[in-house]
Amino acid sequence: MEVCMRPQLTAEPLLNQQTVNINDPKEAARLSSALPAVIQMLEQFHLTREDQAILLGVSTRTLQRAVHGDLPALSPDQITRMSFITGIYKALHILFNDATASGWFKRPNRVYPFLGRTPLDYLRQTGIPGLQDTRRLLDGDRSGQFSSTPASRVAAEQLPFQISPDLLR
């Protein structure tokens, strides 16, 4: 049996794709217009306005004004938070039915990184890094990794994989 190392990945296919510059005021204004939709997503999780504001990195007053159509210009950090929340929302609705997804934020979870806390408590304490970890966890679950830890992912990347001789013919 022949042992092969994982192929090196290249970013070449991505070079021609345009990325969004969230530091550009026009782009930030365009992306800020999604705030009411993200608030509606958070409402489906039965989160208080205070919790919504903390997750989005805005004041409760700003959140109230946005609900009534007075949209703020969001900072790059706030736009990043909206992006992670949107990804978390999408992943939860792919993984679970609506009833399970809607209660997910408030149910204690033993999986890393929550370690017995509710996802909401974890996210309130950790901000953007916590949103990123949560999105990564759920995206991993969607792809069949099922709650792998950062350490286990690094270890798995170091493992050689074997190609069966019958596949080499």
Automatic annotation (TrEMBL):
One Pfam family recorded for the sequence: Xre-like-HTH
InterPro entries associated with the record: Xre-like_HTH, Xre/MbcA/ParS-like_toxin-bd
Domain of life per record: Bacteria
Residue ranges annotated for the Antitoxin Xre-like helix-turn-helix domain, each copy included: 32-85
GO MF terms held by the record: DNA binding
Residue span(s) of domain Antitoxin Xre/MbcA/ParS-like toxin-binding: 92-144
Name of the protein described by the UniProt record: DUF2384 domain-containing protein
